[in-house]
Specification:
Layout: H1 7-15, H2 21-24, E1 34-36, E2 46-47, E3 61-62, H3 65-71, E4 73-75, H4 82-93, E5 106-107, E6 113-124, E7 127-128, E8 133-140, E9 145-149, H5 156-164, E10 171-179, E11 182-183, E12 191-194, H6 206-217, H7 222-235, H8 257-269, E13 275-278, H9 287-301, E14 306-311, H10 316-319, E15 324-329, E16 332-338, H11 339-348, H12 359-367, H13 370-377, H14 379-385, H15 395-407, H16 410-424, H17 438-455, H18 457-477, H19 487-505, H20 510-525, H21 531-561, H22 567-595, H23 598-614, H24 627-636, H25 638-651, E17 655-658, E18 662-665, H26 666-670, H27 682-722
Parallel strand pairs: 9-14, 9-15, 12-13, 13-14
Antiparallel strand pairs: 1-2, 1-4, 3-5, 6-7, 6-8, 6-10, 10-11, 15-16, 17-18
Length: 727
Amino acid sequence: MEDTPSQSDHYRSSSSSASSPTAARPPRGSNFYYLRKPGPAMLRRPISFEDSPEWGDDTEIDVNADELAAESIHVGTTTISPSLSKVNSVSASGASPTPGLSEASRRIAGASIVWRDLSVTIREKRRYSERVVKNSTGYALPGTLTVIMGPARSGKSMLLRALAGRLPHSARLYGEVFINGTKSQMPYGSYGYVDREDVLVDCLTVREMLYYAALLQLPGFFAEKKSAVEEAIQAMSLGDYADKLIGGHCYMTGLPYGERRRVSIARELVMRPHALFIDEPLYLLDSVSALLLMVTLKKIASTGCTIVFTMYQSSTEVFGLFDRICLLSNGNTLFFGETLACLQHFSNSGFPCPIMQSPSDHFLRAINTDFDRIIAMCKTLQDDHGDFSSVNMDTAVAIRTLEATYKSSADSAAVESMIGRLIEKEGPRLKSKGRAGFSTRIAVLTWRSILVMSRKWNYFWMRLMLYLVLTLSIGTIFTNLGHSLSSVTVRVSAIFSFVSFMMLLSVSGLPAHIDELKLHMHEEANQHTGALVYLLANLFSSIPFLFLISISSTLIFYFLVGLKDEFSLLMYFVLNIFMCLLANESLMMVVAYVWLDTFKCTMTLIFLNVIMMLVAGYFRIHDALPQLWKYPLSYLAFHTYCIQGLLENEYVGTSFAVGEIRSIPGVMAVRGSYDISASENYKWFHLLILLVMAIGYRIILLLLLCFNVKRCILKCDLCWFNKSSTA
């Protein structure tokens, strides 16, 4: 069989004459199409991208490595560069520089995704903004890599969210999205979505992280979930890191950015999704890690999975792995089609890619308006050292030229024809996969939280050390007080100091609460868990740690200060401190959710604790407080009820001798320093109020999570968008 003409020859000849668009065009008869790799029983034949995909059943079938290699799509001519040739051969042959899919890999029934005339607007201050995405049209087929590329603020991430059905409530979607030829959204479990930022638990190993994700997402038996985890580890080439802590420990370093990115993708692969959406998969990765990750994604796509992702720019080697590209600028679609056809589109429009320049760099140079400012600033340097740019016209003009050329090109007509065929040929509907039960998810999150708390030194161990040092300090300062009438005032000061500083030191656990909330918001967005599940699991997991802190601190303080030596009174003291810590933890979680920033949360909690200390009734008797501070601040301070309960526990039912005959009740002796009740049962009422406060703050957090989680995510997205970081 005769060799086909070299595509790279056309590419190089066009690149060598950037000033002549006419000369840059390839000779007539040149075919820009893809060829399937020849198998043992298949002749070399051209496969146009208008070919309709074969619909797979909603099941998984086993295939061997040769069949996977035969299904891989590659360029049917000579390669663009030696490095790209090496990468393409690696991808096509099924080999990888890192361990990849096994010969017995499961064949996945991918999903065909079509979007037509898709536009997105965002509501801002009682009105909708200009369209972030404007009349975009394209498709993604099973077994392929489709990249959405463009400069910052071009609408890449918003288009990806629209396709995955993850737009915020304030966004309005226009146009149509078809899944397997049916106008519908992708149900739970049929797709995976990977955010730009990696939200991982640093104190878990890779295998533990994926295993807990499988327990949360998948129904069925533990053996099946373990099998899914091992398949995800193998698919993402994480075997060498499976038992290493993600964030490192002591002198051990954490996982590099590339491996952390792989873990985030593997967490979604546990569900064995039909489609995978990834926002900036190469974010913060070096060139080697980026290439290895893209080769891995190429191998995953070869199993049938539909992969759509966004990207700002890439190297030539990485660019050669893409099957289709959707090029955006300011929300406008400048091209959709095969990657090499995009090079030809730029050449036909008068912007051929130079030989020594990466295609993605050339595309972004032509459509990124920020380059105009750079050229204007360096105009003098350009005159002396030549032109920096491969595009000799204004960026706005280049964008209009590329858009107009694409709309009138055969590529656009072919895309419309292909979309018509995909919509006409309706495939199987994707079914929602089951998930773990309510009680199972609570148990999984509780056990995971306990494991995380026990490994995070700043959440539990550091707090425990601080509490022990604090109680030893207070206990030794107020030791040997005796039980005379003169010791009452000093003992009240000791109890007030113990309670106040115990609550103040709780702020040291704030970073752990913020990390847990961020992890919950990520899992909530992916429908892996819910607000009620998270709150119950957090409550159950925090109880043993708070109780251990309460009993260890109380034992030291109780006996050093010399309080009543009765077991029932000691246990009430422990329960009172435990309830106060529980109420304080609930308040910390509310504040952490409101700010999600360590500095702001710390300042807020310190301020609130100081205010509650001032109105707790120690510095001035509760009844003597001004009305402004008494209502409602003094009644909202849990310090008040905690200290009152502890003093009533110590002094109700006691008396102090005054002279040889007369004695006064302990309540009367305390009232000179603190206002307490004479009833023996009133201390239990104070304990009940602390419990109600602890539950009340968590109910407030539940309401915030139920009604404001998506709004909070939207605020983060809009802030990111306004800072020019959102695509």
